[in-house]
Design goal:
The chain is an alpha/beta fold. The protein contains 10 helices and 16 strands. The chain binds 5-S-methyl-1-O-phosphono-5-thio-D-ribulose.
């Protein structure tokens, strides 16, 4: 695997980094079983909206190859169904699976089917890689030399098939020789910031400081942040954005302190059928992710806990959208 690559297609199998074990262990899984991919998506071994879409498409392709000559249509449709039901918020999942399903319905020839599905999945992967590179270039244009950037969750190469979305802007700015520094929110409960963003930034030699999520507003009040860039799991037609829980409170704090708040995402994260943020399905995860931390129980037995994985940032709090087409200051529908 290349140093900045989360997933690939090798010898008719899907190979990916199991993000559940990072940063302690860099484990690579190689599989031709869509169940392994679906379980990894559910358990956050494969995560980040763009990567979830790519992984699901590859999961469909691998099923078509595996069952070639054994009525693959039926198996492939079962895989699509199973993958559809892994996580509800990232629209990239449904965007990718719908494209795969359309081909399954159209093509009757078995041999042709696996070839077409593999090509389509690889096209989705390559396409995401290209979108990330463009997002990185546009995003970097917003980052001045000496900037302190605030971010949440993980939006780097682990979260996409390319170099990332919000973190792609950071990678680009660093590669262009800008002297930058990132404040990474740890991102409770599953610590994507502490485990994954810190791991990526450390490996890339980009200066950063890890903070607890609740420290962000204080840093903004002390003028320590120049801009905030986050990713997105789904952007509604009115420009409301669902992203990792905590994104909304960061947006409110940025607004209060006049700090620009950008959302970096490819167009595959936009859901034109969804009118506004209140219609975006937000995933609720198991309470034990809150009552424990990295497998260790931290709350008394039977503590009631609520675990929304995402929240919605109203479009009025967003300074701009960094996409593969450029920077949009306002969403088209507004
Ligand atoms: O629950 P996760 O880790 O899949 O949540 C991921 C995020 O919220 C990311 O910010 C988003 O998917 C964009 S990743 C480029």
């Amino acid at each position: 695997m290349l140093p900045r690559q989360s997933i690939e297609w090798v010898d008719d199998k899907v190979r990916f980094i199991d993000q559940r074990l990072l940063p302690k262990k860099l484990k690579i899984i190689e599989t031709d079983d869509w169940h392994v991919i679906a379980n990894a998506i559910k358990g956050l071994g494969l995560r980040g909206a763009p990567l979830i879409g790519v992984a699901a498409a590859l999961g469909v392709a691998v099923t078509a190859v595996k069952y070639q000559g054994q009525n693959p249509q039926r198996k492939v449709l079962t895989a699509i169904d199973g993958l559809y039901n892994t996580r509800p918020t990232a629209v990239n999942l449904f965007w990718a699976l719908d494209q795969m399903k359309e081909l399954v319905v159209q093509i009757e020839d078995e041999k042709k089917l696996s070839k077409v599905l593999v090509n389509k999945a690889l096209e989705i992967l390559e396409d995401d890689r290209n979108r990330c590179s463009k997002i990185g270039k546009y995003g970097s244009s917003l980052i001045k030399d000496g900037a302190n950037i605030l971010t949440v969750c993980n939006t780097g190469f682990l979260a996409t098939a390319g170099i990332g979305t919000a973190l792609a802007a950071v990678y680009n700015a660093h590669d262009e020789g800008k002297n930058i520094h990132v404040y990474a929110c740890e991102t409770r409960p599953l610590l994507q910031g502490a485990r994954l963003t810190a791991w990526e930034l450390k490996n890339a030699g980009i200066p950063f400081t890890l903070i607890v999520d609740s420290a962000a507003a204080g840093l903004l009040a002390m003028d320590k942040i120049d801009l905030c860039i986050i990713g997105a799991d789904r952007i509604a037609a009115n420009g409301d954005v669902a992203n990792k829980v905590g994104s909304y409170q960061l947006a409110l704090a940025c607004k209060e302190h006049n700090v620009p708040y950008y959302v970096a995402a490819p167009e595959s994260t936009m859901d034109w059928e969804c009118p506004s943020g209140s219609q975006i399905p937000l995933e609720d995860r198991e309470p034990d992710e809150v009552t424990s931390c990295i497998g260790k129980k931290i709350a008394p037995d039977d503590t009631p806990a609520s675990n929304p994985a995402f929240d919605v940032v109203p479009t009025k709090l967003i300074s701009g959208f960094i996409t593969e087409k450029g920077i949009m200051r306002e969403f088209p529908e507004n």
